Amino acid sequence: MRTLFTLAAACALCAAAWAADVVVERAPYAEPTVGSPTYDGTLELKWDNGYPAWIIAWLTGAGSWVGNDFDISTISTYRTVESMRIYSGPAWPNGRWDGFRLGIYSFTSVPGSLLWGPKFVTGTTTSYGWNNFTVNWTLPASNTAFAAAIEQYYNYPNMDPHAVDSNSTFLRHSWLYFGGSWGPYNNSVGYYNLMLRVIHNEPVAVSPTSVGRVKALFY
Question: By the 8 A CB rule, do 87 and 128 touch?
Fold first, then answer.
């Protein structure tokens, strides 16, 4: 597969504009990976369509974060973030897992303060796919929205990439932290929906029918 070296367009946050050098790899073809929770009492929150389009790394990305915001105000009993799911793989750019960090941030109009983490993790798949990482953290009662994020802990090529889906319409729920501030997720390939999901767990037992009604909010 061909690797493209390109300069990401500047994206603005308030009056500040910034940009990042980015390296991208065309994602291999994959069947839809839109999964459902595997047992009653959990919900999978997502914005991606399940089709990976590009695998992305920042050239000087150590300390940069990418994440998705989620609002649970309509499902307020599901306050425990059981796990985070990241679409990534060890094949590119260096043929191995190097590790990255997970974090959960407060969220209003942009991600804010760090609420949980950072937690260093290493991927588990042998090729591109969904990597599941345990969180088991309950969102404070005062927060009905949050941003789940991953940090590119090292610089290219000794790092692990993230992925964006094949939907060319930006849903405006993906974010990038670079150069000291958060802004809408940005890159040079024109696909901006980050393939990062969260699994929520309800602290009390619920019936399969009630779970099904809540699932309809997301699927």
Answer: yes
Give CA–CA dist 4/82, Å, rounded: 36
**Cα–Cα distance list, 198 to 86, 127, 136, 150 (Å):** 9, 21, 11, 12
Structural element, H or E, at residue 21: strand 21-26
Summarised one tens digit per residue, pLDDT across range 31-88 is 444 444 444 568 899 999 999 999 999 998 899 999 999 999 888 788 999 999 999 9
Q: pLDDT, tens digit, for every residue of 111-130?
A: 999 999 999 999 999 999 99
Which tokens belong to 196?
A: 């990062």
Q: Domains of the chain, with CATH numbers?
A: 41-215 (2.60.120.820)
* Strand 64-71 to 145-152 pairing: antiparallel
Q: Which amino acid is present at 92?
A: W
Nearest-10 Cα torsion for 152, 158, 162, 163:
160
Angstrom distance (rounded) from CA 117 to CA 65: 13
Name which of 130, 38, 27 is nearest 84 in CA terms. Answer: 130
pLDDT at position 201, please?
A: 84
